[in-house]
Amino acid sequence: MFKNQIMKKSKVLLFTPNLKGMSDGVNRIQPSLGLMLIAQILIDNGHEVKIHDTALEGWNNKKVIDAKKKIISIGQTDEAIKKVISDFSPDVVAISVLFSNLLESANNIATLVKKVNKNITVILGGNHISGSLTDYKFAMADKNSNLPNFIHELENENIDIAMTGEGEFSILELVNALANKSDISKIPGLVKKIGSKKYIINPPKRIPDLNVLPRPARHICNMEGYFNIGAFHSAKSRSNRVLSVMCSRGCPEKCTFCSTPEMWGQSARWRTTKHIMDEIKNDVKDYKIGEIQFEDDTITVHKKNLFALCGELEKIGLPWCTPNGTKVNYHLKDQLNMYKAMADSGCYQISLACESGVQRVLDDVINKRLPLETIKPAIENAKKAGMLVHTFWVLGYPGETYEEMQTTIDYALNSGADSFSISMLCPLPGTPIYRDVMKQNLWWEGRSFNDILFRSSLIKVDGFSKPEEFEKFINEANVKANLALKERDPERFKYKYGDKNHPLYHQT
User: Under a CB-based contact definition with an 8 Å cutoff, are residues 431 and 454 in contact?
Assistant: First the structure.
């Protein structure tokens, strides 16, 4: 798309920052599809690129953050990160903030970059910044929103530029402009501070045809490192050699807790089956892949495309799953046939995004557009088709009562799913729920985005006077869930909790 437009080659270092994890759980890590796509496009256009995952390279370096909650940091030391920067000597460093709780680690990398060389351009991108910018725009439009009237990520003097939305070609345009010392002010998705609370803010540009995207640059990632760890996205993988693939971008739903529309939009765009399968076949061959995990926000949205994909997947005979929660009530009249096609092509587990067992919450609080009566039949259909079923549930929405939360727990326990997780709401930047939380002053004092983990309560919840009380409530709900899992599937339980020294082994 932009080939042969540059006159000077740049060196670009792409970072995935250290992560927070749990000392008593399976901490998931996988190569970044977004960074690998950006890398390949930059490489195709003459730039020298390195991808560095500090969490992967420092996997055995674990530091206790909160002993009581068993929260740890995982990743390289500052000195190790500085050496990576110094050895590669980049012109540009781009840091991915996929989740809001990575912002602290990203800020630290930015600081280290400038300590090595203050002339390196530091770029921040990912879901978090796209959502945060949306909130800033709301703050400008509504002075009573209680949202910050500045873009707090750019208050870090070590971050030069933020990029929003789909960044593959925008970052190429930016790197080309920086290399040639040309104007960057009109580049799509660019956000740059130009004074006190003053910014250049350019709207991002969607990629209408995803088939222009190249095969991700897995060859410059430490793939064997990821395989050796074997802790990919799914709750239980059939192989350590997992290939993460995304067939589509965007979601047509309007759930109030979800930040997907700010990053990918509400139009679900699909790659052609051939484009997807060419990537899969080549990577299966090159990396001896044993399993595929599809990272789509909701892979069942386009039935025709899914059937076509299943037909091709059946030919290669690899197990696959959907770690993200897909919509429960798509294609109800043909749902069983759709699930059978998935199972026949190798899908061993589907994850369903149920969220609540109370219709009022689904309708009025989170705008889920999910009839409650469709959940259990969908679970039954998936199991009839031959798949395991994992379900997602969330508690602690603004306005949700204590009684409604108990109802959801009971519903989840009796839903028929093979396994499920019960999470507390984490209001994400860019979402309607986050803006409601801020407007109602529901955020607990002393809590921040750095605390966005399943075990950290961020907002005031009906029936609980302290965040610790709600955290205990959620923990007890998950104990119930996992004791049920222990009874139904001892092997999966063992995988999830590691060994028989875990306290849950001794509860009945």
Answer: no
Query: What single DSSP character describes residue 101?
Result: G
Domain 11-201 indexed as CATH 3.40.50.280: yes
- The amino acid occupying position 447 is R
162 token code pair: 């933020």
Domain borders along the chain are: 11-201, 231-506
Helix runs in 94-186, H state only? 103-116, 127-141, 168-179
Assign domain 231-506 one CATH number from 3.20.20.70, 3.30.360.10, 3.40.50.300, 3.20.20.10: 3.20.20.70
Q: pLDDT (tens digit, 9 = 90+) per residue, 78-110?
A: 999 999 999 999 999 999 998 888 999 999 999
What pLDDT does 14 receive?
98
Its pTM stands at 0.92
Residues contacting 232, CB < 8 A, separation 6+: 28, 29, 30, 226, 242, 244, 293, 323
Burial 108-123 (b: 16+ CB within 10 A, else e): bbbebbbebeeebbbb
Of 106, 87, 78, 94, residue with least CA distance to 19: 106
pLDDT, tens digit (0-9, with 9 covering 90-100), for 213-240:
999 999 999 999 999 988 787 767 888 8
Q: Residue 495 pLDDT more than 60?
A: no
Reading the block at residue 322, the tokens are 């959907």
Contact call for residues 413 and 479 (beta carbons, < 8 A): no
DSSP letters, 328-356, are: TTTTGGGHHHHHHHHHHTTEEEEEEEEE-
Asked if 96 and 38 touch (Cβ cutoff 8 Å), the reply is no
Query: Which of 133, 93, 125, 90 lies closest to 109, judged by CA?
Result: 93
Q: Could you give the CA distance from residue 319 to residue 189 in angstroms, rounded to a whole number?
A: 37
